[in-house]
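User: Can you help me understand a structure? I only have the sequence.
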Amino acid sequence: MSIAIADRLAPHNKTIREAIDQSTDLKDARTADLYTEISRIVDKYLWLLLLNLLRIGVLRRVLN
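Assistant: Let's start by predicting it. Here is the structure, written out as tokens:
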């Protein structure tokens, strides 16, 4: 289940980063800042999730 969550978070964060770029292009600093904060939160949880997967050895089995 954790791998499925990680698989969904990564593309979601890519979409958020694209929204940051679009907001910046439109010179909408407030929206870009909001998306940046959301992206930081998603990055944090993705990092923690992947770290936990490595800790329990699940990710090692998937990567090998």
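Now, to help you interpret it: The two ends are 19 Å apart (CA to CA). The chain has a mean pLDDT of 87. Let me know which part you'd like to focus on.
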